[in-house]
Write a structure and sequence with these properties.
Layout (H helix, E strand, L loop, with lengths): L1 H6 L3 H12 L15 H12 L11 H4 L18 H13 L9 H8 L2 H12 L26
Helix pairs in contact: 3-7, 5-6, 5-7
Length: about 150
């Protein structure tokens, strides 16, 4: 739906919208890890911060930034987002419902993740506080661990 709407807008208007929303400083709720097994959270932290070479999964931070708040111009932040949203996005990439410019790095990564990996990553991310006064990195970290058409 958003693609349909944005494809029909002039670039100047889209730039104006992007500038407005990027300047907003929103408060974020803290989410409790209550009910999430410690082993799940530990696995999630490892995948997010270090990745897993044995399953060819790069660290989320390798592209989404050390502070996990994204990188300009187009890598989204992962903190301050609900677990259900993160679950839905990864599921959409795994099934092909969501796509990005080829090569679609997130589809590749999501398809490598087991359901347990997705549960661990989204649980850990959803329980992390958004650092005050932080924002996205000025540029996408380099080199990229996976070829990604949407940031090339």
């Amino acid at each position: 739906m958003m693609n349909y709407l944005t494809e029909r807008q002039p670039d100047a208007y889209l730039a104006e919208l992007a500038e407005y929303f990027s300047s907003q400083q929103l408060p974020y709720d803290t989410v409790s890890a209550q009910g999430v097994p410690e082993a799940t959270l530990a696995r999630g932290r490892i995948l997010v911060k270090d990745g897993d070479e044995s399953t060819d999964l790069p660290a989320c931070s390798a592209c989404h930034g050390d502070n996990l708040l994204g990188a300009l111009p187009a890598v989204p932040g992962l903190l301050g987002v609900s677990r259900s949203y993160l679950d839905a996005q990864l599921a959409a990439w795994r099934t092909g419902l969501r796509r990005a410019q080829a090569p679609d790095c997130m589809a590749t990564i999501a398809k490598r993740m087991t359901p347990a990996d997705i549960e661990a990553v989204t649980a850990w991310l959803a329980t992390q506080a958004v650092p005050e006064g932080s924002g996205p990195q000025a540029a996408v970290p380099s080199p990229q661990p996976v070829e990604c058409g949407s940031i090339s």
